[in-house]
Every structure is written in C-alpha cells, then in structure tokens.
Design goal:
Length: about 325
Amino acid sequence: MNYPDYRPRRMRRTENLRRMIRETRLAPEDFIYPLFVVPGSGVAKPISSLPGQFNFSVDKAVEAAQQAADLGIPAVILFGVPEKKDSVGSEAWKESGIVQKAIRAIKKARPELVVMADACFCEYTDHGHCGVIVDHNGTKEVDNDQTLPLLMKQAISFAAAGADFVAPSDMMDGRIGAIRTALDAAGRTDVQIMAYAAKYASAFYGPFRDAVGSAKTLSGDKRTYQMDPGNTDEALREVELDIAEGADMVMVKPGLPYLDVVQRVKETFGMPTFAYQVSGEYAMIKAAAQHGWLDGERAMLESLIAFKRAGADGVLTYFAPRVAEKLAKS
Ligand code: PBG
C-alpha cells in the first residue's frame, strides 16, 4: 500500500465519524440466550460460577424468556437438570421431563420466540458423560451407536413438546442424520436442527458443569468424543458431515478461542453459522470485572463484536439480555 496522504485517524475523530464507517454491528437478533431449568416452582438459584445466571424452575424460566423476548432476543436454548439422574439419562426423553415442560410453558407464553432444546445426556446421566457408557476390554467408553437411538427418542420428545429446534451437543458420529431421520419419521419435517458441529474438548465448560451438576460426578474428560483443540481441518470435516446429514445451522464451540474456526466454517460453507460464548468465557469477564480489573460492559461488547467480525451470524451467550438492554439504550 502506498498512499502517502492517507490518514486513517482522521476518520476516528468523533463518534459519528466512527459510526459512519463501522463495518460490524450488534443487534438483539444476534443473540441466543441459554437457560438452565430445574424442578420446583419459584426457584431462581444463582449459579455461583456464572454471576448473574440462575437455575430456574419452569415458571421462572418463562419469566426470563419473556424478558429476553421483550428485549428483542429471537431465541432461547434450554438445558435441563432433572430430579433423578441414571446411567443412561432416561429423564431426557420423558414427556414429563423438565425441558419438555419448559418448552411447553415458554411456547404457550410466547409462541413467536424460537425455542431450542439442547440434546445430550450429560445433564441427565449420573456419570456426567454425553452418552451410554460401555466396557470395552476393561476400558470404560462412551458408545457411539448405542447413544444414537436415545438421542432420537430425546429429539422426538422435544419436538412433541413444541421445540422449534433440536440442538445436539453430544458429538457422536452420525447423530444429525439419526435425529433428522427420527424427526421426519415422526412427521416433524418442520423441526430444525442446530448442530454443535465443531465442539472442542475444552476447559472453558467448567461453570456450565457446575450449573448442571455434572462437575462433581464426571470422571475423566470428554476427549474421546469432543474435538482436539489443535485441529481446524477436522472442524471443516465435522461441519461438512453435519450439513450433509441435514443440519440447518452449524455452531462452533467454545467461541473466542476458536474464532479462526468460525471464520473458516463461514467462508467454506456459507451456512448460518453460530458460535457459543461458553460459560468459562463469560465467567472470566465477570470475575475480572468484579475485581475491578477490567470494564465488564466494554469487554462484553468487544467480545461480542469479535464474533460478528469473524463472520458469525449469531452468538449463544449468557450476556444476551444484558447486551440487548445496552443496545436498546444506546
Ligand atoms: C452438553 C453441553 C455442554 C455445554 C453445552 N452443552 C458441556 C459439555 O460438553 O461438557 C457447555 C456450555 C457452556 O460451557 O456454557 N454436552
């Protein structure tokens, strides 16, 4: 570049000039708000490692979803913490399950709000892994093909309750195809799938595991099914498979540490591409802000615009209501 008279700083002199040439913007429709639903009523139990987030009973989850909708947020994603956990997570596909109840109640209160249900078993199993555990020659492993039929049951049950989207986060091979087949066979060709397509085995899920109660019970880690943080070509293969199997939206998770993956996925496939700013990312910003070590509100906005700059169509984030509120005031 050889423009001796070009002085970029001139365009940064005032806020109106900066606004005029800003390439990326945030809007309430960029966000999907995750909610943790627990049994009971009138429950809003703070999650200590996720300041400002709660374990909500269904009635309180409805209130939170309504507040989000009033702020212009188009979608929520639900995670359930059942009363009883067992080895296969059988609460996950019950008609009376906690997420099924929450879906029905939220759709009744706000039919236009897009309701997504996270399909996985780690919140429902007593061992905290995302699928069925078997013994392979003395080693305990999550069995891919025994998990698929259970995911199919869970997906059908979420659809029957009224979910708009099933969002599988288990990372089993072939799950998108299995879920699509199950939904279609149940006559639910209308229900969509958001695939956690490139989900990494990450240390940043810590506070989430506190929120769903799997932190204490989980033995070992999830590296035999979640992706290795060193890989990006593999992420493209994972995403391609999920699209081929019928995913409507693809997601990369965690978020900020994997923006290179977000950018490659968006550029390669041009699909609706979302990123999950996970619990640990949120907790880091909140904790530092609580110490007065950084300006939490500015860090929130800066982290979120980074997702858009990388090409994400939207972000799953615990900041969703807060940022939407902030945007409404600005
Ligand atoms: C379930 C699931 C996890 C998250 C979303 N779905 C945890 C995990 O894989 O252990 C993490 C979300 C977050 O950290 O905010 N499989």
